[in-house]
Amino acid sequence: MKSLHGKVAVVTGATSGIGARIAEVFAAEGAHVVLAGRREHEGHQRAAALGESATFVRCDVSVEADVEALVGHAVERYGRLDIMVNNAGGPGNMASVTDFDSAVFTRTLAVHVAGVMHGIKHAGRQMVAQRSGSIINVASLAGKIAGWSGLDYSTAKAAALHLTRCAAVDLGEHEVRVNSVSPGFVPTGIFAKGSGADASAADATAMSVAEAFKPMLDSSQPLPGTVRTDDIAAAVLWLAGDASRLVTGQDLAVDGGMTAGRPAASSRAERTRMRDLLSS
Ligand SMILES: NC(=O)c1ccc[n+]([C@@H]2O[C@H](COP(=O)([O-])OP(=O)(O)OC[C@H]3O[C@@H](n4cnc5c(N)ncnc54)[C@H](OP(=O)(O)O)[C@@H]3O)[C@@H](O)[C@H]2O)c1
């Protein structure tokens, strides 16, 4: 039997990138999926491609009433909610802290922290009543180590990681689990969006982003290869399903080892350089 047979899932930020792939994988595993995002054309198209088991709801996660209506749609249509994936997010802003615009900072927190909070709150209410459910938040390696994204984004993702733990201990007695997945660098449109490109045009740039990342990943990521949306979806699928039934409050890093440390080759090259310098 398919691993999510008959389960009901909501995925925010499912109009492109990681969220779109999670929705596809969930549908292939037998779930009814409600896709959410702000772009209606893309959302309806993606839901239609998944067949009758998928619908799209327009939702800005920073607006609590939108998220409440999104969860309400899933429950009204399917009678329950088993999986909530709080994945929606946008790029960071690269200004220095000394120049940071507080309105920009507040907006980033509204999407990446309040947006996740809204999802946990409204999915959590339904799941507490059911006494079951799995909530997965998409965080980031940038929430664990500094210097890989804007300070607003990195701070917000760090908050999302701790919110995951706080909600997990809050909801555990109701048999509701809350975990997160922290992607490393995944080629999606988010990077071109950060450079100001139109959202739909940006989504088409994923492959060129992969090329642009290569030199940086070679020196920073212990495992060779590019982290793909498939890799994130596989981790989210495991956290969504019964195989992880006693896992809560945890973060699963899918980053090729970047948050574990530097690749051995980088350290070796530096030690050799140091030895040559000291012996000359
Ligand atoms: N790609 C990476 O390297 C990477 C690394 C670490 C973490 N992440 C995280 O992974 C998640 C997905 O990003 P991605 O790389 O797949 O980028 P993406 O392709 O740009 O997808 C972002 C999704 O979030 C939606 N979204 C943005 N703001 C929203 C809002 N206020 N309300 C509702 N939906 C919103 C977008 O849809 P609409 O435009 O239709 O609203 C889109 O579906 C984000 O949380 C991101 O921070 C990505």
List keywords for this structure.
alpha/beta, NAD(P)-bd_dom_sf, KR_dom, oxidoreductase activity, Rossmann fold, 280 residues, Sc_DH/Rdtase_CS, 2,5-dichloro-2,5-cyclohexadiene-1,4-diol dehydrogenase, seven-stranded parallel sheet, 10 helices, binds NADP nicotinamide-adenine-dinucleotide phosphate
Task: Give the gist of this structure.
By secondary structure, the chain is an alpha/beta fold. It is built from 10 helices and 7 strands. The protein has one domain: NAD(P)-binding Rossmann-like Domain (Rossmann fold).
Helix content: 40-55%
Q: Number of DSSP helices?
A: 10
Which structural class matches the secondary elements?
alpha/beta
Largest sheet: 7 strands, parallel
| Strand residue percentage | 5-15%
- Rg is 19 Å
In the CATH scheme, the class would be Alpha Beta
Q: Round the mean pLDDT to the nearest integer and report it.
A: 96
Helix-strand pattern, N to C?
EHEHEHEHEHEHHHHEH
- What is the CATH homology-level superfamily? NAD(P)-binding Rossmann-like Domain
- Would you give the CATH topology? Rossmann fold
Shape: globular
Query: What is the domain tally?
Result: 1
Cofactors, ions and other ligands in the entry = NADP nicotinamide-adenine-dinucleotide phosphate
Count of β-strands: 7
Span between termini: 66 Å
